């Protein structure tokens, strides 16, 4: 969907800070969760009025990482944005200012039960997976969801992040996660935005100070090696 392009200076700076290519060269899979953020019809269905071109092509990659992590004993969490009446009332700076021209359409689309609110049907959702409903860009804010409490209760401390949009909900969640003490790995080819520029700028910011950036093949390799004890 995107051509990855992270400035060599930023990549080198991150490598020097870490002392290696990645901060997280091994993970505890039983303490790892995949957060598939906003993988909803709203952005993935080609018939949606705000469809992100190519978004549906990421479903197989998200599914592959999800299955690898399940097999290794990790948790898969599908995160859905929603606009309940309480959420709208509690976030006026967003609904009444930043998106006021499209407010009604967004609320209608993100209301539970809407076609656009539903998870994209091409996603391989299993019974043991969790579904998290959020009301802000970041799903880790207490005013957005109870996900942080759920993660901590399950002793989960490592997050693989996929979904939409790279530079909005994915980046917001990743920044909060790192500052709250989680290990964060962005899946560069399982996140999507409206342009290569926005996608790459976001991943560059995150690699610089907040997270590791891996493609899905690399992340699956990390999961497999970590679960099997190989290096």
Structural notes for this entry:
The protein has 231 residues and is of the alpha/beta class. The protein has one domain: Isochorismatase-like (Rossmann fold, 3-Layer(aba) Sandwich). The chain has 10 helices and 6 strands. The chain has helices spanning 8-18, 41-44, 59-71, 85-90, 92-98, 103-109, 147-153, 166-179, 196-209, 216-228, and strands at residues 32-37, 75-81, 130-134, 158-164, 183-192, 212-214. Strands 3-2-1-4-5-6 form a 6-stranded parallel beta sheet, sandwiched between helices. It is globular.
List the helices and strands and how they pair.
Layout: H1 8-18, E1 32-37, H2 41-44, H3 59-71, E2 75-81, H4 85-90, H5 92-98, H6 103-109, E3 130-134, H7 147-153, E4 158-164, H8 166-179, E5 183-192, H9 196-209, E6 212-214, H10 216-228
Parallel strand pairs: 1-2, 1-4, 2-3, 4-5, 5-6
Helix pairs in contact: 1-9, 3-10, 8-9
Give the class-level CATH name. Alpha Beta
**Number of helical stretches of at least 4 residues:** 10
Order of strands, widest sheet? 3-2-1-4-5-6
Number of domains: 1
Q: Could you give the order of the helices and strands?
A: HEHHEHHHEHEHEHEH
Approximate shape: globular
Our measurement of the CA-to-CA distance between the termini, rounded to an integer number of angstroms, reads: 30 Å
Largest sheet: 6 strands, parallel
The residue-averaged pLDDT reads: 97
Low-confidence stretches: none
CATH-level-4 superfamily name: Isochorismatase-like
CATH architecture: 3-Layer(aba) Sandwich
Provide the β-strand percentage band: 15-25%
Number of strands: 6
Radius of gyration: 17 Å
Structural class: alpha/beta
Helix percent band:
40-55%
